[in-house]
Every structure is written in structure tokens, then in C-alpha cells.
Amino acid sequence: MIKNKVLIVEDEAIIALEIEDRLMKLGYQVCGTASSAEKAIAIAEQTSPDLILMDVKLKGKMNGLEAAEIIRIRFNIPSIILTAFMDERPDGPAGELKPHYLIKPIIEEELKNAINDILKNSV
């Protein structure tokens, strides 16, 4: 069975490790982790993940929503946006992406359902 590849973009190392552990338990392959939007774009280009888990707030000049949009446009890779606050969901242009959102702390069942939904709809 081929495992779906997931890229984790999270600037808090302990949270990234927790997400990686949950993904591996669910049977996904983690193809990399990035702590900035710029690094996420580079890793996405190199590894061609099936999906990206993208934190909204990242270190650097670009936030996760901007990175998710660039990756979607350039490489046609969907993202699930991770946020600590529901009010971080945009109403403007980035909101037009209609990405899936997960509120941190992440509940494993919600993570599994969101990933399954995205992968099912991106085929």
C-alpha cells in the first residue's frame, strides 16, 4: 500500500513533532517539516507531498495562508490550515481558497477526517 505523503509546516517544534507522531500512527508518511513559509514552498517543490498541514502564523515575512495559496497555484497541492483561533480564518482573498481548518490542539479523529476528505476530493 502506498502511503500518502504529508508536509508539516509549523514553527513550534514540539507541536510539529506531535503532529508527525499522529500522522505516522494514522499511516501517513511525513515527507518533511518546515518552520517558515519559504522553506515550506521549497520542500513542497522537492518532495511533491499529497497534502500540507500549514500553520497560519509562521516565522518570517509570509504567513501560512499566503504559502498555502502559492503552493496550491504552483504545484496543485492542497492544504489543511492549522490555527489556534477561529478568528484567524480569513474573509478576504486568502479566504477564497476555502481550505479546511483545524483548531489547535488537534484532535486525532478530526485530523484523520480532514485528511481523508481532502485526499478524496483531490483525486
What percentage of amino acids are in beta strands?
A: 15-25%
- Tally the structural domains: 1
Fourth-level CATH superfamily: Response regulator
Mean pLDDT: 89
- Shape designation: globular
Main sheet properties: 5 strands, parallel
Class per helix and strand makeup:
alpha/beta
Biggest sheet strand order reads 2-1-3-4-5
- Please report the distance between the alpha carbons of the first and last residues: 17 Å
Q: Give the uncertain stretches in residue-range form.
A: 92-97
CATH-derived topology: Rossmann fold
> What is the tally of helical segments?
4
Examine the secondary-structure arrangement and name the CATH architecture.
3-Layer(aba) Sandwich
How many β-strand runs? 5
The Cα radius of gyration reads 13 Å
H/E element sequence: EHEHEHEEH
Indicate the percent of residues in helices.
40-55%
CATH class: Alpha Beta
Could you explain the architecture of this structure?
By secondary structure, this protein is α/β, with parallel strands linked by helices. It has one domain: Rossmann fold, CATH 3.40.50. It is built from 4 helices and 5 strands; from the N terminus they run βαβαβαββα. It has helices spanning 13-25, 37-47, 64-75, 108-121; strands spanning 5-9, 29-34, 51-55, 79-83, 100-103. Strands 2-1-3-4-5 form a 5-stranded parallel beta sheet, with helices on both faces. The longest helix has 14 residues, at 108-121. The protein is globular and about 30 Å long. The relative contact order is 0.18. Mean pLDDT is 89; it is low at 92-97.
